[in-house]
Design a protein that fits this description.
Elements lengths: L1 H18 L10 H13 L10 E3 L6 H5 L10 E6 L3 H14 L3 E4 L15 E5 L6 E4 L4 E4 L5 H10 L2 E2 L10 H5 L18 E7 L5 E5 L4 H10 L5 E8 L1 E2 L7 E10 L3 H11 L7 E10 L4 E11 L2 H7 L1 H4 L6 E6 L3 H8 L1 H4 L6 E8 L4 H17 L7 E7 L2 H5 L14 E8 L5 H18 L21 H5 L4 H11 L17
Parallel strand pairs: 2-4, 3-4
Antiparallel strand pairs: 1-2, 5-6, 6-10, 7-11, 8-9, 8-10, 12-14, 12-15, 13-14, 13-17, 16-18, 17-18
The chain binds flavin-adenine dinucleotide.
Length: 507
Amino acid sequence: MVKAKFSTWASALCFLSLCGDAAAHPAATAAACKADLKGLLTDPARHWAVNTTVSFPGDATFANATERWSIFSAPTYSAAVSPGTEADVSKVINLARTYGIPFMARSGGHGYAASFGKLQNGLSLDMSKFNTVKIDSAAKTLTVGPGARYRDILDPLYNAGFYVQTGSCSCPSVIGVAIGGGVGRLMGELGLTADALQSVRLVGADGVAKTVSATSYPDLWWAIRGAGANFGVITSATFKVQTLASNNNGNVFMLDFYLPKEKSLDYFKVIEKHYSPMPANLAAVLVLNWNSTLNVSQVGSDWIFFGTEADARKALAPILALGAQYISATIPWNKIIAISGAGYDPENCLPNKPRNSFSLNQKVYSAVGWQQGFETITDFFEKNPGGRASQIMLELFGNQATAAVPASETCWPWRDVRGFFQAQFVYDATDSATQQAANTYGAKIRSQYAPYTGYSKPTVFVNYARGDEPIENVFGADKLPRLAQLKHKYDPSNLFAYGHPLPQSYP
Ligand SMILES: Cc1cc2nc3c(=O)[nH]c(=O)nc-3n(C[C@H](O)[C@H](O)[C@H](O)COP(=O)(O)OP(=O)(O)OC[C@H]3O[C@@H](n4cnc5c(N)ncnc54)[C@H](O)[C@@H]3O)c2cc1C
C-alpha cells in the first residue's frame, strides 16, 4: 500500500514537471504525461464517489465524456472524469491546480471555438451527470445542472405552465449558453438567457464551492454572465421563468418558407425596410444554403411571432405579400425548436462533424451585406461540392428587453445587438481540400460582411466567437479592465485557460 502510494506520488511529481507547461512540451513527452495522468486519477487515494466515472481512451464511457458537436480544431483528451458529486468537481480542480493538468469543463460539448484545439492530451471534466431539472412553481424558478440541455427543459416547463428564454437549438447545455450571455428569439421580450439567471453554484479555481448571486460574490455575479467559462465550474443554476398565461397561453405563430436565390435581394430589402429594428415579439432565423435536389442555393426562413395569429398576420404583412409557398401554424412555445425551420434541429444538432464557423454581431440589417455573403457562399457551393451542407445563418431578434437591462448589470457587452451572422462550413473530416476552401471563403465572407453590421469594427459575442478575433471585439474594451482584474483575483494561475481565456491584466 505504502509502496503504491509512493509510486503514484513519484509519478505525480513527474507529471508536474512534464506537464506543468503544456506549451513547452515536445510531443515526445505526451505519452509520459498520459501515463502519469492515469496513475493520478486511478490512485485509490482519490476516493472518488461511487457515481463518479473516470475513463480513458478506449473505455466505453470515454466517447460520451468527451464528445463534441464540432470536431474542427477540437480539444483532445487523455482522460475524462465525470463527477457524480460537487465534492468530486472540487477534487478535479484541486488536482488540476496542484499538478498543472490542462483541462476543460464540458457540459453539452457544443462550444465550437477553433481556439479550443489549443488543449491537447488534456482532461475532460465532463459535467453530464449533473443533469437535474427542477421547477419551483411557487417561486417561479427553474434550477438545472450543467448536463441539462434545452431539450430537457422545454416540455417540463411548459407542462408546469411556464416558459423561459432559450437558444435556437435543442442540444447545447442551458448553462453553457447562459454563461456566454445566451441569445435567442425572446431577446426582445425577456432579454438574454443570462438575464433570467438568479444564482449559480460555482466551484472556483481554489476548489471551493460557492453560491454566486447579486448578494453573494457580486463581482463574480457580474462576470459570469458573459464570461462564465473563465471563473470556475458551475454545478447548478437557477433561472426565473415566466407564466404561459402572461403570453398568449404559450402559443406562438410560425411562418416558414423557402425562396430561390433570384428573389433573395428583394426579400432582404423587405426585411431591411420593415423589420429594422425587429418588433420585440417577432423573431426570424434565415438559412442561406444549398438545395441538393434542385442543385441551387436558396433562402430558408422561419418567422416566429409571440402572440395571436391575427396580430401575427398584421406584423408579418410585408412578408406575406412576397407570395411564397408558406407553411404556417399556431404552435405551443415548447415545440418551436422541434417544428420550426422544417424540423432543422436534429440535423443541426448532429455531433462529431467538422463545423468551421465565422460569425459577427449585427446591429442593423443590411440587404446588400446579406446578398454579398449569399453570392460568396454560393460560389463556394458551386466550386466545392463536398461543402454543400454548409450555410450562412442569420438570426434576427428584437433587443428591446436586452437593451433595457443597464449595461453595468453584466459583463455582456453587446446589448445593442439585433442579430447574428454566422457562416458555418461543414464537410467530411477527411476532405482537406474543402476544409482549405472553407477557411478561405469563411475569412472572406466575414471580412466582406463586417462593414454592414452597424458596428464601427467587427464584433462577435463569446458563444459564437471563433477565437481568432481581437479580445476587445469579443468582450468589449470597456469591460476588459474589470474582467481582467477579476480573472486575476479568482483564477490567478489561469486554470480555466481554454474557453476564450481572459487576460490577467488589461490593457
Ligand atoms: C447547434 C448549436 C446551437 C446553438 N444555439 C445557440 C443559441 O441559440 N444561442 C446562444 O447564445 N448560443 C448558441 N449556441 C452556442 C452555445 O451557446 C455555446 O456553444 C455554448 O458554449 C455551448 O455550451 P455547452 O455546454 O453545450 O458546450 P461546452 O463545449 O461543453 O462548453 C463550452 C464552454 O463553456 C465551458 N463550460 C462548460 N460547462 C461549464 C460549466 N459547467 N461551468 C463553467 N464553464 C463551463 C467549457 O469549458 C467551454 O469553454 C449554439 C451552439 C450550437 C452548437
